[in-house]
Amino acid sequence: xxxxxxxxxxxxxxxxxxxxxxxxxxxxxxxxxxxxxxxxxxxxxxxxxxxxxxxxxxxxxxxxxxxxxxxxxxxxxxxxxxxxxxxxxxxxxxxxxxxxxxxxxxxxxxxxxxxxxxxxxxxxxxxxxxxxxxxxxxxxxxxxxxxxxxxxxxxxxxxxxxxxxxxxxxxxxxxxxxxxxxxxxxxxxxxxxxxxxxxxxxxxxxxxxxxxxxxxxxxxxxxxxxxxxxxxxxxxxxxxxxxxxxxxxxxxxxxxxxxxxxxxxxxxxxxxxxxxxxxxxxxxxxxxxxxxxxxxxxxxxxxxxxxxxxxxxxxxxxxxxxxxxxx
Amino acid sequence: xxxxxxxxxxxxxxxxxxxxxxxxxxxxxxxxxxxxxxxxxxxxxxxxxxxxxxxxxxxxxxxxxxxxxxxxxxxxxxxxxxxxxxxxxxxxxxxxxxxxxxxxxxxxxxxxxxxxxxxxxxxxxxxxxxxxxxxxxxxxxxxxxxxxxxxxxxxxxxxxxxxxxxxxxxxxxxxxxxxxxxxxxxxxxxxxxxxxxxxxxxxxxxxxxxxxxxxxxxxxxxxxxxxxxxxxxxxxxxxxxxxxxxxxxxxxxxxxxxxxxxxxxxxxxxxxxxxxxxxxxxxxxxxxxxxxxxxxxxxxxxxxxx
Amino acid sequence: xxxxxxxxxxxxxxxxxxxxxxxxxxxxxxxxxxxxxxxxxxxxxxxxxxxxxxxxxxxxxxxxxxxxxxxxxxxxxxxxxxxxxxxxxxxxxxxxxxxxxxxxxxxxxxxxxxxxxxxxxxxxxxxxxxxxxxxxxxxxxxxxxxxxxxxxxxxxxxxxxxxxxxxxxxxxxxxxxxxxxxxxxxxxxxxxxxxxxxxxxxxxxxxxxxxxxxxxxxxxxxxxxxxxxxxxxxxxxxxxxxxxxxxxxxxxxxxxxxxx
Lengths: 327, 306, 260
Description:
Chain A is mainly alpha-helical. Chain A has helices at 3-24, 28-53, 62-81, 98-120, 125-145, 171-194, 196-206, 208-213, 218-244, 254-267, 274-292, 297-310, 314-320, and strands at 155-156, 246-247. Chain A has a domain at 30-252. Chain A is 72% helix and 1% strand. Chain A is globular and about 55 Å long. The two termini of chain A are 12 Å apart. Chain B is an all-alpha fold. Chain B has eleven helices and two strands, in the order ααααββααααααα. Chain B has a two-stranded antiparallel ribbon. In chain B, β1 and β2 (138-141) form a beta hairpin. In chain B, α1 crosses α6 (166-176), α2 crosses α8 (188-211) and α2 (41-59) crosses α9 (221-235). The termini of chain B are far apart. The mean pLDDT of chain B is 88. By secondary structure, chain C is an alpha/beta fold. Chain C has two domains: 1-92 and 182-260, Rossmann fold (3-Layer(aba) Sandwich), CATH 3.40.50; 103-177, no CATH class. Helix content of chain C is 36%, strand content 23%. Chain C has a six-stranded mixed β-sheet, sandwiched between helices. Chain C has a four-stranded antiparallel β-sheet with strand order 2-1-4-5, covered by helices on one side. Chains in contact: A-B, A-C. Chain A binds chain C through residues 191-192, 194-200, 202-203, 206-207, 209-217, 221, 323, 325-327, and chain C through 63-65, 84-87, 89-90, 94-95, 97, 101-107, 109-111, 113-115, 117-119, 122, 124-131, 136, 154-156, 172, 175-176.
């Protein structure tokens, strides 16, 4: 079995161990911490499809994270006040059902990704970075002024949403949902990487000219990758909103975009379980360093700088060696 | 709405745009010449503002504050360049984005550690306080008018620098073909440091000037940085002219949008809904503008092909 | 000036690839000046010329990476001037690069599979492994076999030798089962044995699809070409058989000092 596969299994295993242990010793806080890791990892898996596989440097994935969060916020808040979202021309009511919320979240973020991608993928890489950043900022300012849903103060959702057959208020069960979704996303990602689509996308990242001369248009596959990427991060956003039972414009902030990037980079760009490793380390740092110093971002920044300048492969790179695309 | 109010808002839009231009010009120069996208440019803006506020409060002189801003921004810029950015030239954009994002974290938290989380205040100098009466009976803030004047002066200065001097020639050549100018014997290191210092000084200047009309606090640079990106996308990267046109467009769209949209909506809905919906829509106006430009001209209005 | 003797006799069959009056100007430089070229079925048509003559510019316009100011590019009689590079590839134009354009991190086999993906059409599978056994893999391995790279199938493209990279480029072009090849200096940087192998490979290829061969290596040109066109300062100054070109005064003048 390849070294990377072993590392991946260990990472997922580690992520599973903490909450299980915490459930046994009745420490719900640590279960929530693990859930936070799983959700961040999911957001990172989404970004990694665009960034790692596609080479698309999106510094605006907070757009999708926030859209997913607000999809949950809008739907759940209307459900909890028993008022419909819209009556004319068609009746749309709120809902507390997680599966429905997830579908809406993914639909919304996928749609936004399609629009943003269509506009920005026709231009050069630098513009892409700026444009994705700009659109996330647009959503940020919009939600701040959108007083109907809390504006700058955000929106609290009092009841955790429901999933058929489960008690979602139980921390370990909610963790279970998040972990299963993460595993599903990872499985999908693994299939993409090995598929024809994955090969073409990867090749387009390395040599767009090559891909064009064999008859495939890089723009199309990149757009598709960007949409899928947005949808997965959007799903993570909906889960995050559910975890905190709170949605605010900060989900759209450039800091959030940056953090999602950090999860991916810390773990190793384009590595399948890179985001898992990155999320584990980030939340651990946040928890440990954050407890020690109010200015722990300085340390985070320094670590990030060191990794970028000297240890490009990230954690998975360090543990499993250079990435192998070939057999 | 009266014509006087409209005129005042137009002036505000121009002033906002001119300040954005100072940021965008530095960014676009650095990218055009060095191929470097620098997210930490906003930190230089912030450092300029903090230096100005601190020195002005300590010495009572706004001018001293301005000089301090330029010096601090240039120094921080030089430090950034020597320690970190030098290693990023030629590396892919992802590395540049991440490293400069890391710099934002370090500079922001560092500033917060030194100055605390509460905003500092920079007073408008007495000589520039108050209003002036312009033709048409418009009363406008003298300080803001001065900002416009300073910005236009800098813009002309930059134009002369790029178009008429040897340095400018190297910059233009560098934008077209980086490898070529090295081969022609131009001292790349020196050129890069100069260009970077220039961009940093512009950012610091903008920070100091703007600091007097809005509060000086950690994180003030990033929203401006992102707006500068919008300006560059609209104007076309590598083009100073594009940065100027783009900046004025963005400034006017944002300011006028904020006034006109709610006013327009009062025709369809009650005043309070119009105000809130209008301001929400207005916040999107410049991004809609950016999207419109992208549809028609994906490389920006005056984009330089790379 | 085109050698009038050979242009008088129009081919009985339609040229597979043709440029008609291609013009391209870059500021002061006329990089392509009214270029009309034909690539006939079953032939290897070499395009030679001194450095800076505009060969690369012409290739880019044929392949679709550059838009001519005026003129057309015809593939099997169809006007492809408005089509993108990818569309032209789908229409049957296979092009190799002077500076190898490969997915360097992927294996030789994966690069070749890429070509097969392009050939099969637009639907790219997203779930099944691309390396699985099946027609795609067979086609890729067959192409590698033909260029003699099958034993390197799992080597990383970045790690194979320069000559092997040229072979890989051709393997990828083969998988497209194209109507015409456009090869940009395939011999560049090859030693004698590498060149010899490639020459024999290309020799056999012409009957599958004609080749427009841009080359500097005169040995290869004389060994392979049925016809030669000479490009100088953006213009075709001569076009004809190998012997006609060898004796052409204008060509000799353009290559002043060169032993042809």
